[in-house]
């Protein structure tokens, strides 16, 4: 295995307010240097909350966090002040789902990238603008010199996402977090952005965590997949293991509902029911109410974590009853 870039141990995140939301429950995960991992699951499964916890972007007054998060050996939950500022955008950067909301509408594209470079690298404005131009070229934006002077609203959705990627990578982070960066794009542009991210990941050698609800996207971009459900990782393995030999009933349900493999006129498979409310911490398998294989033992306590292979794990009593995908 490659050296560990990221180690998350027993992460728990609760949101306090009129009611308590148990968003993440005892999540453990690791990522090696230069690896690409997809966090796969339905909306509300905790994928985006996990990324925000990694960047310390959760509202501190309403959030309770337990566990340990280390990036390059540094305990990021203890960072504050300048150390936290250097960490965000320097060691770890994020590409958001909607760049129109993430980019500042009152500054040009070039000014925003240059400001980030000056803050983290301590270079002059002219040097920072050279970096900004170089990054726009690397993300393959047409007429990059002219685009430096554009405002975000003057660009198409696909071009704004390329700017977001350029901004995130301008300081050469060791870890890139991508939160559904292609969801708002049409199919053709989506493929272009995925290919670009894969190319830049290889060029820069950074680790990547890619959040998606689309298993086709996860297969295209990642070496490993971690499947999330109700704030927990229910299955993890290499992309090939997850696709060829899914062990958790939820993973198999996601594969069966995949639009990419359905013939015209064929009825889509669906997972019955809905994800659970997260107002109480789970005391048994969260997927049991939707699972055709569930028995009384599944509702009696939390499922054991089975490890059929190195870095392969499944949180399910029925892991050995899963039928491999055709």
Automatic annotation (TrEMBL):
Membrane-topology annotation of the record: Peripheral membrane protein
GO molecular function per UniProt: ATP binding; ATP hydrolysis activity
Keyword Transport attached: yes
Compartments where found: Cell inner membrane
Listed SUPFAM superfamilies: P-loop containing nucleoside triphosphate hydrolases
InterPro entries: AAA+_ATPase, ABC_Ni/Peptide_Import, ABC_transporter-like_ATP-bd, ABC_transporter-like_CS, Oligopep_ABC_C, P-loop_NTPase
NCBIfam families, per database record: oligo_HPY
The protein, known as: Peptide/nickel transport system ATP-binding protein
């Amino acid at each position: 295995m490659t050296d560990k870039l990221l180690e998350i141990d027993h992460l728990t995140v609760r949101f306090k307010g009129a009611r308590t939301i148990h968003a993440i429950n005892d999540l453990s995960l690791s990522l090696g240097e230069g690896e690409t991992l997809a966090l796969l699951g339905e909306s509300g499964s905790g994928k985006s909350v996990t990324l925000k916890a990694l960047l310390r972007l959760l509202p501190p007054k309403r959030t309770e966090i337990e566990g340990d998060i280390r990036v390059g050996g540094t305990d990021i939950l203890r960072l504050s002040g300048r150390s936290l500022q250097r960490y965000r955008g320097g060691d770890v950067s994020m590409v958001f789902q909607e760049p129109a909301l993430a980019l500042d509408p009152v500054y040009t594209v070039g000014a925003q990238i240059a400001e980030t470079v000056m803050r983290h690298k301590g270079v002059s404005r002219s040097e920072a603008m050279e970096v900004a131009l170089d990054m726009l070229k690397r993300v393959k934006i047409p007429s990059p010199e002219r685009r430096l002077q554009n405002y975000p609203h003057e660009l198409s959705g696909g071009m704004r996402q390329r700017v977001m990627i350029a901004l995130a990578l301008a300081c050469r982070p060791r870890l890139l977090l991508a939160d559904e960066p292609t969801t708002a794009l049409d199919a053709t542009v989506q493929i272009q952005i995925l290919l670009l991210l894969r190319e830049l990941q290889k060029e820069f050698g950074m680790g990547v965590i890619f959040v998606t609800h689309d298993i086709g996207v996860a297969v295209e971009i990642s070496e490993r997949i971690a499947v999330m459900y109700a704030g927990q990782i229910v299955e993890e393995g290499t992309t090939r293991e997850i696709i060829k030999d899914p062990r958790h009933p939820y993973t198999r349900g996601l594969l069966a509902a995949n639009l990419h493999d359905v013939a015209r006129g064929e009825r889509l498979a669906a997972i019955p029911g809905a994800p659970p409310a997260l107002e109480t911490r789970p005391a048994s398998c969260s997927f049991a109410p939707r699972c055709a294989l569930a028995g009384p033992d599944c509702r009696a306590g939390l499922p054991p974590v089975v490890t059929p292979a190195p870095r392969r794990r499944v949180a399910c009593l029925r892991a050995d009853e899963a039928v491999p995908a055709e």
